[in-house]
Design goal:
about 475 residues, binds adenosine monophosphate, alpha/beta, 9-stranded mixed beta sheet, 13 helices, 5-stranded antiparallel beta sheet
Length: about 475
């Protein structure tokens, strides 16, 4: 059994209704139960006035009902707007206001909330699949509108090029308000698989993560590299203990070479997929299957090549994306749509704000955000490049550079943190020579003035390394 995205219907192919569809901490649902619950969800939503093109805000945190609601919204062609419960009420309120949404589904309570009386209002943009809110520089979240055709492209890409095999079992750890989680949602539904949802409590324990993966036979790992890095403290995170694992899919931040080497050692037969792309272009746009030869040196990994139906190229050093998977625009932000979007050969295009290059063989590279580029004493440097050099220090630990700023915003100094796995305030002995080791790779102005140990690098709710938190940590240490 699987869910046909195009028609919005469940398709019964022989038996299979009893196979697990959703494994969440609160409940497990097989495919027949998912179908029944999604249909009941639709009935209730229709009774409350939800229809095609009307946004439905879904709030919660990894409950089985969250996935049921996402499925129901697909059946009704009502664009879903996932908001994880980790976000404050104020952010939720501003999202509901920007959407002028009349209905919210609370997955933790298992019930709808009517936000305002009267009929639901369809969005001006028709045929959307979802609206994903990302942080905006003005403090107001921006609603990225993704069309139904864009998601069809994502599903086709996963089916044809990811090598996921039959009925994949997805590890679903990223919050639903981060679009990387949609690999798991659409992959599970379209391929008749299973979604194993980890809540924050389970995700925080590497032992628990591995135990759940083994118990439910996870075949497809999906996460940011930071989350995978955290699992390495568990010596049992190995192919021998997780023989069902078939694929690692990474997205959301640079995939460090040292992490790949460690994963290769522990999972010699499991392919590592590096995928890249902003939310504005439906989860991801480029794909690289990491080859052993790419791990022979410490040179940063490419992000691969553009997916079949799209184009990725560099314009004045900036990565630009064109194709049917580019968003229909930010909701109610004509100002941004004018500056960030364009048309190319009749297709929608988006300027990513990422620095990129293309090698002679067509492989693409992302060198970080244009805005992660800093000026220090007149020198221009990329924090990501410093991170990449730090990652090659002995021990292959996670590490991150942080720009400390003066009140006027100017960068005063560069420092770095390295993950040690312990609260010991001293650097591990093997890092005693860190400055000399970095000097072999980096020009003097890119070498941090201090390297500080920290038990674990802080990550954002999306499990990307959080430089702002590191800067605050530095202030506390020096208060
Ligand atoms: P988001 O919209 O939160 O998914 O963030 C997208 C941004 O994360 C991209 O524009 C890149 O700056 C960064 N990013 C995502 N995936 C990768 C990757 N595989 N390698 C390097 N940077 C990445």
């Amino acid at each position: 059994m699987h869910f046909d995205y195009d028609s919005g219907r469940f398709v019964q192919t022989g038996s299979g209704g009893e196979r697990p569809a959703i494994v969440a901490r609160d409940r497990h649902l097989d495919w027949t139960q998912l179908q029944r619950e999604a249909e009941a969800w639709c009935d209730e939503a229709c009774r409350l006035g939800l229809g095609a093109d009307m946004p439905i805000v879904i709030r919660g945190h990894k409950e089985a009902a969250f996935m049921v609601a996402l499925t129901g919204a697909l059946m009704l062609r009502a664009p879903f707007v996932p908001v994880d419960a980790v976000y404050p009420a104020e952010r939720l309120a501003s999202i509901c206001q920007i959407l002028d949404a009349h209905l919210l589904y609370d997955a933790a309570q298992g019930r709808f909330e009517v936000l305002r009386e009267g009929a639901g209002t369809p969005l001006a943009e028709k045929g959307l699949c979802y609206v994903m809110f990302t942080s905006g520089t003005t403090g107001q979240p921006k609603g990225v509108q993704i069309g139904r055709e864009s998601v069809q492209g994502l599903i086709d890409w996963m089916r044809l090029d990811f090598g996921l095999g039959e009925r994949p079992v997805f590890l679903d750890q990223t919050v639903f308000s981060f679009d990387v989680s949609l690999y798991d949602v659409f992959g599970t539904l379209a391929l008749g698989g299973t979604i194993l949802m980890l809540d924050r409590q389970d995700a925080a324990s590497p032992l628990k993560v591995a135990a759940l993966m083994a118990e439910h036979g996870v075949t497809t790992w999906v996460s940011t590299p930071s989350f995978a890095q955290q699992q390495l403290v568990n010596p049992g995170f190995t192919q021998a203990a997780l023989p069902q694992l078939r694929t690692f899919v990474f997205c959301g931040e640079p995939l460090p070479v040292p992490l790949c080497r460690q994963l290769r050692k522990r999972f010699p037969d499991v392919p590592l997929l590096n995928t890249y792309g902003p939310t504005e272009a439906t989860v991801a746009t480029t794909l690289l299957v990491v080859e052993d030869a790419m791990l022979a040196t410490d040179a940063p990994l490419p992000i691969g090549r553009a997916k079949r139906d799209s184009a990725v190229y560099c314009d004045e050093g900036e990565l630009c994306i064109a194709g049917p998977h580019v968003m229909r625009g930010y909701l109610n932000r004509p100002d941004l749509n004018t500056t960030r979007m364009f048309l190319r050969d009749g297709q929608r295009g988006f300027r990513t704000g990422d620095l990129g290059t293309e090698a002679e063989d067509g492989l693409l590279f992302c060198h970080g955000r244009i805005d992660d580029q800093i000026k220090l004493n007149g020198y221009r440097l990329e924090l990501m490049e410093v991170d990449a050099a730090l990652a090659t220090l002995p021990g292959n630990r996670g590490a991150s550079a942080v720009a400390l700023r003066r009140p006027n915003g100017a960068v005063a100094r560069l420092v770095a943190f390295v993950e040690t796995g312990s609260d010991d305030p001293a650097l591990p002995a093997e890092l005693a020579d860190w400055k000399a080791l970095l000097a072999a790779r980096l020009p003097h102005y890119m070498i941090p003035s201090e390297l500080l140990p920290c038990a674990q690098l802080p990550v954002s709710v999306n499990y990307k390394t959080d430089r702002a938190k590191l800067a605050r940590l530095y202030e506390t240490l020096n208060a």
